[in-house]
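Class, study these two lines:
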Amino acid sequence: MNKGKVKVGMTQFHCVPDRAENMKKAEAQIRAMAAKGAKIICTQELFNGLYFPQTIDYTKYDWAEPVDGPTNQKMIALAKELDVVIVSSFYEYAMDGVYFNSVAAIDPDGTILGVYRKHHIPEGPQYIEKYYFTPGDSPYIVFKSKYGNFGVLICWDQWFPEPTRILALKGADFVFYPSAIGSEPDNPELDTSQTWIDGMRGHAIHNNFYVCACNRVGREDAVDGSGFMEFYGRGFVADPWGKLIAEGKYNEEDMVVAELDLDEIKISRDILQFHRDRRVDSYGELLKLCICE
């Protein structure tokens, strides 16, 4: 069955302390990518503010919004005006004391197709996410939008192969990864940007579908002066063979736009047959956290 082509876009901009200014930056990039023909547009992780998990500050819980809060209302209006699908990253308020790192998928008619909540929550120097985010309780969702069927995983999710396999088996033709990744504060000489790209190229190859990774960019200082993060950008799209077909600039603001030929998915899967040859009967040990003798 012919699936045709779809053009996707992803933001890549430097977030600033003024949250209203970040919304303006996101809107400007969404409009520009829509003008280039992008029909599904993904925002970077937590795009409307600084990356606040650098420090512990309980007042940042007040940044959380319900699904129908002002961030997504703005994205709904843009989706309807521009006739595009928008993948909107937001800090979700579920109830007092329960907050998620979430994404809403919004169709061009303004319908919220669903909400994915980040499953894998990291913890490390200046990535203090366990303080702010409850581990996601949503399934791994394939959003069936006007312009294509896709999944969304968020940042730390990208280092785990299992979620992408699930999304591929559920019928996703591509996956977005809104991210906030950059410097390693405890290993400042380490540049993980190529490792980041190569890891997700592996997901594209093993599932023979498209992977679209979106990242923020630029230096963001911790509000208490204890340090900073330097997000490296380099958003990219990998095709079902793992080849990069688009890549954002390193350490610069940019927009990543690429046309996906969805018929290439069937071609690559018919040749490589990774899904046919899986031995699900032999993988039971994966359900254990530690396989110890």
